[in-house]
């Protein structure tokens, strides 16, 4: 529903959640602080957002950020169903959540939070906007004028999930990564307006989102992400080695990612892939600011350059690289120092700066 005036805004806040396809608000459909207008170009809040023709409903709830409390949240839920001629039925239960606020304070949690948005299939937002999106998630770091009182950057995140079916996991369909970037930037603009820190020139997407450089790769056919030394197939049993897959994500001077998973086994009743490790390099200044302070002030280990820590399931180093502070990350249950050394070495060679890790001397991953 459109927050067209103070009365509607008060009612929306008081109700907390409302149905927008029926009732008195049927002709006033907008969400996320007025960012997403019905039939305003966003599939999510138009007819295209429904995957089935039956039992359609769309509900929303929100709390807007303010100058006094610059945190906010909005949620949109969609439900529909489709009955097949055979009598079977598919049901859509999609939830999209946008959050406005700073990154988590805990260093470990913050690293996991950042990696969750920048790794795997995520690609950087175009036009120099500090953020990244994939088909179901997005992160945008706001201008410095929106930083919190303690100096932490404020960000807007988008997360979509689908209730899984009886047999298979389900992935929400928001219209692709470009649609997610449009939703994210629009919500960020309205959030900044509500919090009183909007820039004079609104944030805009000036070009299409870059595409993934390649499809999912098979680790049995070569090193993960084509990086020498990332050879996890040598350290696992034969069955796991056959199921190892990697995804090359962004490969720019500001962001690089490599994700490795163990593909799910339907025969074993596994519903999801299992994370092996995620590796990231972050140099974009506002994204790097999200991780300020998490590496401490000591070298990770003898022979390493920069500051940080190594293991057991989170490796992080911050060092100067090509005249800019750069953060290297590796997370996951199978992250290891040799893998991390191989990844950081490949990145520093590509960027043209000194290695952060000492020369490998052998050993186990």
Brief synopsis:
This protein has 365 residues and is α+β, with helices and mostly antiparallel strands. 18% of the residues lie in helices and 30% in strands.
Explain the layout of strands and helices.
Elements: H1 6-15, E1 17-19, E2 30-31, E3 36-37, E4 54-63, E5 72-83, E6 89-102, H2 107-118, E7 123-124, E8 131-133, E9 137-141, E10 154-162, H3 177-195, E11 217-218, H4 238-243, E12 244-251, E13 255-262, E14 274-282, H5 285-289, E15 307-310, E16 314-321, E17 324-331, H6 337-351
Antiparallel strand pairs: 1-4, 2-3, 4-5, 5-6, 6-10, 7-8, 8-9, 9-10, 11-12, 12-13, 13-14, 14-17, 15-16, 16-17
List keywords for this structure.
single chain; 8-stranded antiparallel β-sheet; alpha+beta; 2 domains; 18% helix; 17 strands; 7-stranded antiparallel β-sheet; disordered N terminus
Strand order of the largest sheet: 1-4-5-6-10-9-8-7
Instruction: Indicate how many domains the architecture comprises.
Output: 2
Major sheet summary line: 8 strands, antiparallel
Count of DSSP H/I helices: 6
Helix content bin:
10-25%
Structural class: alpha+beta
Mean pLDDT: 87
What's the SSE pattern? Answer: HEEEEEEHEEEEHEHEEEHEEEH
Tell me what portion of residues adopts beta-strand conformation. 25-35%
Distance between the termini: 54 Å
Q: Evaluate the radius of gyration.
A: 22 Å
Number of strands: 17
Low-confidence stretches: 1-26
What's the shape?
Answer: globular
